[in-house]
Amino acid sequence: MAGRGRADRSAPPGGSTGTIDRALDMLEFLREAILPQRLADIAAGTGLSPSNAHRILAAL
Q1: Does some domain include residue 6?
Q2: DSSP 14-54
Q3: Residue numbers of the domain that contains 32
Q4: pLDDT in tens, 6-34
Q5: What total number of domains does the chain contain?
Q6: What is the pTM of this model?
Q7: CB-CB contact of 39 with 54 (8 Å)
């Protein structure tokens, strides 16, 4: 019964690589910022919604 009941585990389920990419984009944005940034500025500068930016910042 090859191929039944098990997912391919070679790649993470959709989204985890994207989350890492967004976190790295956020870190790069903050590294290049001259002054401290507000959540709204970080969200706008990275193209994320404020809720997603907050979630990623909390995880970092």
Answers
A1: no
A2: TTHHHHHHHHHHHHHHHHH-SS---HHHHHHHHT--HHHHH
A3: 16-59
A4: 444 444 555 678 999 999 999 999 999 99
A5: 1
A6: 0.69
A7: yes
